[in-house]
Amino acid sequence: MSPSRRNSKRIRIGNVLIGGGAPVVIQSMTNTDTRNPAATLTQIRSLAAAGCEIVRVTVPDEMAVTALPEILAGSPLPVIADIHFDYRLALGSIRAGVHGIRLNPGNIGSADRVRAVAEAAGEAGIPIRVGANSGSLPKGLLESKLVAGISHDEALAQSLVEAALEQVRLLEQYSFTQLKVSLKASSVPVTVKAYRRFAELSDYPLHLGVTEAGTAFRGAIKSAVGIGALLIDGIGDTIRVSLSAPPEEEIRAALAILESVGLRDAAPELVSCPTCGRTSWHLIAMANRVESLIAEVKSSGKKISLRKIAVMGCAVNGPGEASDADFGIA
After folding, report:
1. What is the pTM of this model?
2. How far is CA 183 from CA 86, 113, 157, 221, in A?
């Protein structure tokens, strides 16, 4: 059973609908040098093959801006430009034809610069993501709350919400409402608290993620707990699992999270027992092999007609747990 979704505004990034009841979308970010279009396109195509639906690329300088037209021409996915510090890079990226802009309210600069980006994005008909991040909040915001005597986690969650709302209101002053919002911290409780609070105050679509989550294993666990909790609440329109790992691993984890909360078709679902002293065969190796085979078949574009596959180790719980499976191995 899939969770009841929060009713959010709908926006479009390229040909992908976001919010307003559209399916939750998987995003990732390239880790190649954007100034190298060939390497960047190779990675984007690999991400698309893995199941990514929107990709973000960093735009650190004018050389990266000049590479964007080639990347956009060859990308199978909508491309979002990630902008920090220099608003002129956002303007150049919009002129190049990107499908969306990501701004950080803590480092983009004065209101007139934000206005210039909003006007350019409005003319181009592309959305902006307001990205509040615990590592780059407006100067003094967090400190002012800590002085008030509240806990650090509560102060950080409040600061994320206020930073995002401030930028949203500023953009709204310029009649720009094609927005998506993120509120990321490396702490799962802080991240969840910030998103829940913002969701009560606004109906803009939300991009979920736990920033700097960590390596492939621990980062996937933190992301599953944080993103999964919010998705079960019905909160979230796009997700990214941020990992210190090849970006294709982010897609694998994101798909597993969506499948686990009932927002993506998991067929065939693989269930397997944890093994105990009663297990008399190499169940773990078999379960891993079956999982790999499922991934290989699905990545090739083929469909598997089985709904559930069970790999079980003994006669205690195995028959009952596998009773509703279409195919069993024991």
Report:
1. 0.91
2. 21, 22, 9, 19
